[in-house]
Design a protein that fits this description.
The chain is about 35% helix and about 25% strand. It is α/β, with parallel strands linked by helices. The protein has an 8-stranded parallel beta sheet with strand order 9-8-7-10-11-14-12-13, sandwiched between helices. It has a 6-stranded mixed beta sheet with strand order 1-6-5-4-3-2. The two termini are about 15 Å apart.
Length: about 325
């Protein structure tokens, strides 16, 4: 109802309510819907951005409407290009859920956990579809929140025998390894982490390539999450031109991914095309999934709300 006050769901509540086993199948369904380009299923334009030049960042606005599901949502996210070792956050996000009939705000949800888990879950879906079925070695380039969420979901659903981690500082990589209980190996260079790896995840804040095609094992799968601006990059031309490139959103990749824009690489398919059976999963080839993080913010938020009420001991609304 339009007169009801909005629910406010904080980070610790999202962590308690959102689980990968529920999130992944919902996202697979949503990816398939998006790639059908049926406006009754999903309307989601390429995100609009406002530069924050003074702070070397930008604000991204990411609305989605799913008419058949009665879901209207937008994500507001600030990205910053921070110096190594900065104590300031690189990403801050908030998700707003609205009533599509009345237009009022139904919920305001902390977006940090949603962003980390949704992005990692879609990367895991890309690996499920595109990596070699006998993959054993996972390499993660990056040591921040996204690196941790990717480590969590990839080790939860895939039986990797070895996990390697590289960060801009050795201390950062070693700290990450300690945070996961020592179940990974810190590498002294990105090349050391990547050589021979079956799956590579890039979750860096870099604006210049950190992953080079000459290091990448033929047939490896790369889930590339960073470099979300048309002049930022994580991968070099060699890798982008030799690999088969998939994306969550073709339009988003062509407009926003510096790895796609600056290399001139062609986006072969969306993940939703593979899920729908309209494009093949070329597991035998080297593949790159370029994640823009735009897609399906509604899917986590739309089932967090009922879970919030179901798990509330007194049915009260957080204000």
């Amino acid at each position: 109802m339009s007169g009801s006050p909005p629910v406010v769901i904080w980070e610790h509540e999202v962590e308690r309510l959102l689980q990968y086993r529920e999130l992944i199948p919902r996202l697979e369904e949503a990816l398939g819907k998006f790639s059908k380009r049926d406006s009754a299923e999903v309307i989601q334009p390429v995100r609009s951005t406002v530069p924050l030049q003074k702070h070397d960042g930008f604000l991204g606005l990411m609305p989605t409407y799913m008419e058949n599901d009665g879901v209207l949502s937008t994500k507001l996210v600030c990205f910053y290009n921070r110096e190594a070792g900065s104590s300031l956050p690189g990403v801050q996000a908030t998700v707003v859920l609205l009533d599509p009939e009345y237009g009022n705000v139904k919920a305001v949800i902390d977006g940090e956990v949603i962003t980390a888990m949704r992005t990692a879950a879609v990367s895991a879906i890309s690996a499920k579809l595109l990596m070699h079925p006998e993959a054993e070695v996972l390499a993660i380039l990056g040591t921040g929140k996204q690196a941790l969420s990717h480590y969590n979901v990839f080790t939860e659903i895939f039986p990797f025998k070895e996990v390697r981690v590289w960060g801009r500082t050795r201390e950062g990589a070693e700290r990450f390894v300690r945070s996961v209980g020592g179940a990974a190996r810190a590498c002294g260079s990105a090349e050391e982490a990547v050589r021979g790896a079956d799956v590579i995840v890039t979750v860096t804040g870099s604006t210049k390539p950190v992953l080079f095609g000459q290091w990448v094992k033929p047939g490896a799968h790369v889930a590339a999450v960073g470099a979300c601006r048309p002049d930022w990059r994580e991968m070099d031309d060699v890798l982008m031109k030799e690999a088969v490139v998939y994306a969550d959103s073709r339009e988003g990749a062509i407009a926003e991914s510096g790895d796609v824009v600056l290399s001139g690489a062609e986006v072969f398919a969306e993940l939703g095309d593979v899920i729908n059976g309209t494009k093949p999963a070329l597991r035998e080839k080297t593949t790159v999934f370029k994640s823009l993080g735009e897609l399906m913010k509604t899917e986590p938020t739309s089932f967090i709300i009922p879970l919030h009420y179901a798990h509330s001991s007194d049915g009260s609304v957080s204000q």
